[in-house]
Amino acid sequence: MPCLPTRNDIVAEIDEGLSAILNNALAEQEEIPFMAIDFEGSSEKIGEKNHYVLRLYGSLINGQKAVVTFTGIQIFFDTLVPVNEFVDDFKIKIDTILSSIINTYKIEYIKAFPLRGYYTEKKSYLRIFTLGSGDRKKVLQAIQDNNFEIASDDMFSFHHKIARENGIVISAQLASLGKKKERLGKMISSVKVK
Questions:
Q1: Domains in the chain with CATH codes
Q2: pLDDT per residue over 71-85, tens digit each?
Q3: Torsion-angle region of residue 63: left (phi > 0), alpha (psi -120 to 50) or beta?
Q4: DSSP-assigned letters across all residues of 56-122
Q5: For the whole model, what pTM was predicted?
Q6: Which of 67, 82, 168, 191 is most buried when burial is the number of CB atoms within 10 A of its CB?
């Protein structure tokens, strides 16, 4: 009874030198084509701190499976500073809300274009960093309960925000690992080829 070929058997049969090209590119730390077909995000403890970890799953030019792992991603969300309020006054309100829910957080002032609508000028936001995605969800809900506008109301898909902020392609489009690694620096901790 003939057995079905494994993925590795199929890759070896249709390789046509692509594995050698790929291995050389990996050894030389050159750009390689990569298509992410799936992804997952999770909060993991690295050392003493929780960090967001984003994994992209896909295949390489020779058909081998690959996992690209981004680590060291800080967990955050942005809340819009109301037009009629001073940034410092709004920061005090947000600080009061946060301190009643979580112990450790950081608030930064940023200017950015809103995700929805067309704007010619950037708006003022407070970027709120938390230690874990659980804390992020709690605080995000509290901010919404106080009728403050946030840049993204997606409570559970932090990977979309990370992708937007860092130019990571997580859809079925062809991406180049070399350009992303150069741009993201230490965030890419590993590329595993199976």
A1: 7-71+170-193 (no CATH), 75-161 (3.30.70)
A2: 877 888 899 999 999
A3: left
A4: EEEE-TTS-EEEEEEEEEPEEEEEEPPTTS-HHHHHHHHHHHHHTT-S-EEEEEEEE--SSS--SS-
A5: 0.65
A6: 168
